[in-house]
Amino acid sequence: MWTIIVFLIAGIIVGNRLNLGAKGKHINEKIQFVGLLLLLFSMGISIGANEEVVKNLNDIGFQALIFAICTTLGSIILVYIVSKKLGKEVS
Amino acid sequence: MTLMIFATVIGGIFFGYTLLPPEWMPMMDQISTLLLGLLIFSVGIDIGGNKGALKNIKSKSKMLGGLTGAVIVGSGLGGLVAGLFFHHTTNTSLAIAAGYGWYSLSGIILKNMASAEIGAIAFLSNVFREMLAFILIPVLAVRVNHLTSIAPPGATSMDTTLPIISKSTSPDIAVVAFLNGLILSTLVPILVPFFYSL
Q: Are A59 and A45 in the same domain?
């Protein structure tokens, strides 16, 4: 958790001081996109190679999926209601 | 975007399941951590370069309070509904739901407090929640609104899903998402044992 906070704050300071132009922002976006796909791929690998996931998938996979869907859906519905109450500023 | 995310994650899972030699695993974790650090740094540059992102604290704190509160209540209600299908007790269902996507921690806590099975359900359901978030964030950001797109990821909105949020929304919303993840991550080790012991 602390690593993330340090990296984020370091990035904010650099972004603030550097004052990237349109071109710099574009390059940063490109880097983010490639980095994002690499991260997702490596996270997929970690999940696929995780014995605990694979071992449990048969027994409790369905149950876990229902929990994931319900908690996600519940959050979406309530946050949507809150976003409507807050009005235009949130989108 | 969603399709690409979906294909990449599935591709990774397939690769990890079939091809990856087990002794490479520790290295993979290091690579993920390093990539994540670099991405978060790059998201930071976005936020730092945006003059408005760190302002309007008042409207942001209103958004943040509503968002995080709604995620906590919405996850709890969803968990209760899911628990009904499988005849879990109220406290167990709420505790599983309070992982907010942080699978490693909620899995371990419930393995120790409840049982290996409940721990495994918490672990796997929160893995799935993170994967659902990868897919749903870009869709919700476009079809519904930006704030709603931060509902699925829960605690992961401060790290693994933050780059997707940043890409799908604005630096303004990325700041709110990060703080939301930070609060939820802090609450996981408190709320999971709390709900379970009710």
A: no
Domain, as residue range, for A89: 54-91
Res. B54: pLDDT tops 80: no
For tokens 């409507």, the residue is: A84
The CA radius of gyration of chain B, in Å to the nearest whole number, is: 17
Residues A4 and A37 in one domain: yes
Which amino acid, one-letter code, is at B32?
S
How many independent structural domains does chain B possess? 1
Q: Which residues contact B169 (CB under 8 A, 6 or more apart)?
A: B141, B146, B149, B150, B177
Contact A39 B36 (CB under 8 A): yes
Of the candidates B150, B182, B155, the one whose C-alpha atom is nearest the C-alpha of residue B168 is: B150
Mean local confidence (pLDDT), A57-67 = 90
Number of structural domains chain A divides into:
2
Residues of chain B neighbouring A61 (CB-CB closer than 8 A): 124
- Residue B98 CB neighbour total at 10 angstroms: 31
User: Given CB atoms, is A48 within the 8 Å cutoff of chain B?
Assistant: yes
Cα of B195 to nearest chain A Cα, Å: 15
Looking at the structure, tell me whether residues A65 and A27 fall in a common domain: no
Q: How crowded is residue B5: how many other Cβ atoms within 10 Å of its Cβ?
A: 18
- ipTM tops 0.85: yes
Phi, psi of A12 (to 5 degrees): -60, -45
End-to-end alpha carbon distance in chain A: 28
Residue B135 is part of which domain span? Answer: 54-196
pTM of the entire predicted model: 0.88
Rounded Cα gap, residues B136 and A72, in angstroms = 10
Taking a contact as any Cβ pair under 8 Å apart, which residues of chain A between 49 and 88 contact chain B?
49-50, 52-54, 56-57, 59-61, 63-83, 85-86
Q: For residue range B77-87, what is the model confidence (pLDDT) as tens digits?
A: 999 999 999 99
